[in-house]
């Protein structure tokens, strides 16, 4: 029983350490594929719908900022050199045309930092949960060790002195 708990404890501690090490790597490994998806945006395919949803929910535009749309497939094929309407500030609504010349109507902050922050936050909470379970397992192992290592000589004598 102790061996099984020890293996689970080692796995939990390993997961915590790996999560801590790779938490900072999320940013560098995430930006390049995100940049590629943004460059392939056409407003029709499923990836485009995911980007629209992301930009609306996080209130962001582009990977680093709204100027990332310059030179993208969308920017070059629309003819009006604009960003998708999902970049528009939600409170502005109807007045937004998506033109880069009107940044006051656009979410200017990029989605890359917001996504990395969200993923790192989730990873941090997961690491805290794993650490909590590891601490409980550690005390469980200590309890098992105390119970198995305790010497039991049968019944103990009562030394109260009242009936002696």
UniProtKB/TrEMBL annotation:
Checking SUPFAM superfamilies in the record gives:
Tetraspanin
List keywords of the entry alphabetically.
Answer: Membrane, Signal, Transmembrane, Transmembrane helix
Which domain of life does this protein belong to? Eukaryota
Signal sequence coordinates = 1-15
Q: Which Pfam families match?
A: Tetraspanin (PF00335)
**UniProt keyword Membrane present:** yes
Q: Return the InterPro entries for the record.
A: Tetraspanin/Peripherin, Tetraspanin_EC2_sf
Q: Which residues cross the membrane?
A: 125-149
List the membrane topology term(s): Multi-pass membrane protein
Q: Where in the cell is it found?
A: Membrane
Q: What is this protein called?
A: Tetraspanin-3-like
The UniProt gene name for this protein comes to LOC107122627
């Amino acid at each position: 029983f102790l061996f099984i708990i020890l293996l689970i404890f080692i796995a939990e501690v390993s997961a915590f350490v790996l999560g801590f090490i790779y938490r900072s790597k999320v940013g560098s490994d995430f930006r390049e594929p995100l940049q590629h998806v943004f460059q392939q945006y056409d407003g029709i395919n499923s990836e485009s719908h995911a980007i629209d949803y992301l930009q609306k929910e996080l209130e962001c535009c582009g990977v680093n900022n709204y100027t990332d749309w310059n030179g993208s497939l969308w920017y070059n094929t629309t003819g009006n050199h604009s960003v998708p309407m999902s970049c528009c500030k939600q409170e502005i609504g109807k007045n937004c045309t998506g033109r880069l010349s009107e940044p006051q109507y656009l979410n200017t902050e990029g989605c890359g930092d917001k996504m990395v922050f969200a993923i790192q936050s989730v990873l941090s909470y997961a690491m805290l949960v794993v650490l909590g379970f590891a601490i409980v397992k550690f005390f469980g192992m200590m309890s098992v060790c105390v119970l198995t290592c305790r010497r039991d000589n049968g019944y103990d004598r009562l030394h109260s002195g009242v009936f002696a």
